Input
Amino acid sequence: MGFLEKVHIYCFLLSYLGSLGFEVLLLLRKPAPFLRTLAIAFAGAGFLAHTSFLLTRSRVEDLPPLLTSQQDWLLVLAWLGGLLYLILVVFHRQLAHGLFLLPAVLLLVTAALFASPQAAGTLREVSLRRWGMFHAASLVLGIAAVAGAALSGLMYVLHHQRLRNRSRFLMRLTLPSLENLAAWNRWMVLFSVPCLTVGLLTGFLLISMSRDARQAGIPWEDPTIVTTIVVWLAMVAVLIRTMKAAQQPGRSVAMLSFLSGGFLLLTVLGPMLLAGAGSLNSIHGRPADNARRQTPSAETSPDPASKGSAI
Amino acid sequence: MNVLVISCNHHKAGVQLRERLAFSSQQQLSEAYTQWRARHPESEIVVLSTCNRVEIYAADERRQHGVSFDDITRFISQFHNVPPDEFTGAVLAHSGADAVSHLFQVACSIDSMVLGEPQIVSQVKEAYRVAQQNSACGPLTNVLFQYALKVSAQVRTETALADGRVSIASVAVGDFGKSIFSRFDNKTVLLIGAGEMATETLTYLQSEGVRKIVVANRSRERAEMLAQTFRGEAADFSELDLWLAKADVIVSTTGASQTLITKERFAAARHKSAKQPVFILDLATPRDFDPEIARLDENVFLYDLDALEETCERNRQARRSEIHKAQEIINNQTRTFMQEIYHRATGPVINRLREHWNDISRAELDRLFRKLPNLDSSQRDAIEATIGRIVNKLLHPPLEALKDEARGGTPEGLLQAIRRLFSLGD
Output
């Protein structure tokens, strides 16, 4: 299995792209079961490579994948998307989940290419790892739920359009029922708020526990912190709107969660990419170092100079 | 060896004639099989009787004096007490490869009234099962029907002939209803009127798990009757607005000459509801619901007959575009099947020829070994092997000629010639 350790991000990026290509072909052509099988095979191969990449990175950096770097953080989010796609496509082969999930996965993997692959120094302090893991996991799950709410909102809006206007093209799009989409949307919003809340609180806790950060105080100007707070506030607003809505919220709430979720995800990804490119200074990662971004195998033990220099 | 079919189906015969020729109960079918066996004990028969077709498939392995179209026609006429001239003009008769191809078309539902409908496969299966149960099948019909079911499965797997729904009720529930709701067991269905299409739609809804059905009709008696059929409850027509607010699914099919539910009336009812999604099927002509109701709010999904028919037609067209692919599969499989059958027909002659020549060679070898008693076993084996090779080489040309001929049909002429040339008898 040594070859799996030499996996490059492009390997699974292209696999997911191939899978999306087959999903698009399925939409444009007459139903052909072999196309769905090919889509699953490509996504499965990509997912295997993706998993191997994260595990290798984690082993090389001697940190859990979530704590390794912003790049891996994005890749874990994409990994969750890939996993969800495979689960859904196995149980509901006829539905076009891939047309929504795979672009999100591709977006995250592409964003990861530009994000910083260097670990935040603070989390190398062993005493903080547990809290760091908790913080990162809560935020990843929260952001994944926001993405889920945005995607289910988009699916709801398109499906609603399909049913109301009977658009010939949209009629080919086989989606879950509106009732299911509304329920998923509601649960995603409900799930995202506590996760983001816990993520934010543990983030502040981590700063207060870290020796270096404690001296500097909470960096309110940090773009990742700012956007996460904005996401949290927006999702609380969406949650209140969802709870106030009727039994099945309908198109307007779905549209709201799609727009807010989609926009907010971009505002989270944006600062991460800018921080990765060195345009913004963030405690969540240092500018990407091209030499270290290539493959996990190319990344040897962490640079001692980076330890503690940026939290 | 031959296969015949006489088919009285929806293409040529009206429903009245089909009803007269139908074998409508198991008892009637059993009786028919008993009578047939008594008359034609050496032939095989399978009766396929559905609401759209009455077909009799007969097969006979005898070369001469086998079962004929006249035998089948006479049997139908006498069994149903219908003079032949009242139905012979409205039935189709096929034999050989055409009969086989016809059965394959039927099993693949290319010949069905609703192209690609799935019920016909189980009907063909059931017809074959009943024929077997009544000991009416034989080697030919067994192979034929098993092959037909295999071809049907192949067509369904390799083409989109059965994809998409094509009846109003199935499209309404399957394509639209199930796109709105994930489950129906917690939904309230309101039926306004008591038209035939509503009954069909309710059957589909009930198969999806609907439990609460409310029937509102101007005639309370009719409403109660229908409610009883679907284990629902009847409501007074005066309570209609109340149920309009409560229902999740509304199926309307009254014979009203004017719009029954105006936009204002529905808006008033909707005002009292939680504005949950409501799926309205207006199956009446003229329409019972004002089309403007669809614009009342985003959770109103209103479909009339035109909207549903449009989807049906689109699905039908998609299915029609697959006929060519399905027919190609059927043609190929018919050819393969007929070749297998023709090879079966040549089998007995080939076996007899081989046995005949082996007997001769065995007899000559015995005579030789008696004359040359000093031969050791290895010499004997060598001589036997040589003779065996000579026999096989001599058999090769006639057998190859038979195989070639069998590709185009039962090679009766060649079989006859071989029988005479090598004194094989009948």
Q: What stands out?
A: The longest helix of chain B spans residues 323-371. Chain B touches chain A at residues 160, 163, 176, 178-183, 274-277, 294, 298-299, 301, 307, 310-311, 314, 318 (CB under 8 Å). The mean pLDDT of chain B is 88. The radius of gyration of chain B is 32 Å.
